[in-house]
Amino acid sequence: MLTRKQHELLTFIHERIRETGVSPSFDEMKEALDLRSKSGIHRLITALEERGFIRRMPHRARALEVVKLPESAAPQGGGAPAKRGFSPSVIQGSLSEPARVPDNHASVPEGGDALSLPLVGRIAAGTPIEALQDDSNHVGVPSSLLGSGEHYALEVKGDSMIDAGIFDGDIVVIQRCDTAGSGEIVVALIDQQEATLKRLRRKGDTIALEAANPAYETRIFPSERVKVQGKLVGLMRRY
After folding, report:
1. pLDDT tens, 126-148?
2. Is 87 a catalytic residue?
3. Can you state the percent helix, strand and coil of the chain, rounding each to 5?
4. Is 5 a catalytic residue?
5. Calpha distance 152→174 (Å, rounded)
6. What's this model's pTM, rounded to 2 decimal places?
7. Contact at 8 Å (CB) between 131 and 189?
8. Which member of 198, 203, 223, 227 is catalytic?
């Protein structure tokens, strides 16, 4: 039998691997379970491994594999399920060709199944690039990806967000906003000239822009140097 925290962690790992293909980082697991240190995550993982629910795979980053799930979906002791981090909705298949529209706002194409959003440029998921403001091109986006407010699209360049399921060449759908909660994936404008797609973390008067690839370092800035230009709500991928 599993404790509540063991069950929450196992469920979180299983869902993250199912959605993104990789297991979550220790920081993501710590945040999801509201633990103060990674040592608690290490103890939970060891307990799950000893009970045969997960397996560590050698020589691979984030090498956790879920071997089995408990028969009961309800953890012992009750309580709320683990919080889930952002995992973008992926629309597979061919992207529609960019469509020209008379203004910068989304318009509904024939049939009402998609919206034409401004494709404002390329966003770096790696080393930041100069912010692009060109919104003369548009791309058709399924309406199911959109919520309230204004949206735009960007093409991803780089591999720093691959562990979040975001790859080079993906089209990300961004909801325009100027604020975001800690842990959300955002379009961040650095020093009014560099735009990048990263997970935002706040601590005091500083902002950390965190990659989802161990090959990239987290960059930390004074909060006044970083401006949020939107948050990720979905993505599309061409196969």
Report:
1. 655 555 555 567 888 777 777 77
2. no
3. 20, 35, 50
4. no
5. 5
6. 0.53
7. yes
8. 198
